[in-house]
Amino acid sequence: MNKKYLITIVGPTAIGKTAVSIPIAQQFNTEIISGDSRQFYKEMNIGTAVPSDAELSTVKHHFIQSISIHNDYSVGHFEMDAINFLDQLFQHHDVAVLVGGSGLYVDAVLKGLDDFPKVNPQIRKQLKADLEHCGIIYLQEKLKELDLETYQKIELQNTHRVIRALEICLGTEKPYSYYIKNAVKKRNFIPIKIGLVADRKTIYDRINQRVDLMIQNGLIDEVRQLKDFKHLNSLLTVGYRELFQYFNEEITLDFAIEEIKKNTRRFAKRQLTWFRKDPEITWFDWKTKKEDIIQHIEQQILNHEKNNLSNLT
Hints:
Low-confidence stretches: none
Shape: globular
Mean pLDDT: 93
Radius of gyration: 20 Å
CATH superfamily of the largest domain: P-loop containing nucleotide triphosphate hydrolases
Strand order of the largest sheet: 3-2-4-1-5-6
């Protein structure tokens, strides 16, 4: 091969991205980068659906449980770390695999981040005070009013992201989405984008089954051990936030579990909204044979190589 290729596998949570990524990585004798922002943290395992030990031992994975919840790790940090890692990996491999459902983090690797202007830090301080006194719904409605496009895309239960979007809206008097310019940074690889999808009922059923399995595997104990750190940005996420409410005796356990399922389904819907706007993604039904997906990837690489050869002659 003359070029380097980053095979990117995206789709909603619980669709089976890991199960597809491993045989693809094996086929190309390469390694996997996780683009799932919830799987970075060492202390979070069950609730983030980290690949099993067997899966992790089959193919080398990176950026999984690699930092602590106490670290301040942003999408900007991930972009820099992932690109630096790919530069090293491509010295010995022609192909790498990126897997994840966090659209912003995947796009940070493929396209680079947009540049946002600096805003008065007092705005964030006030928004945090609003969160404390008025609750997340108040901030969600404020975002809906100021930037409907971002409201429809982001994980609304993630207070860190809602506040980030609002501080840009308020600090610049322009919508957060205004600064998403889709200006692609130059990369030293060619992306081949694969999306996995199913009908809504199947996605929702798989999510419900996964949550039940998480509970059986000890999610409640995992979250209980982290309740003293519930204020950290890394823990302001589905599966942890609801159980913190249960530990605070604000809701029952059964209600908390149903809320995890409901909020995860909502998250999956937003993931699909994000990824479906990318015309470069080739979508496959989640039950498609791995061999068929691999054949498609090989054909894409072959086409790129032929085009590259013709351009040289």
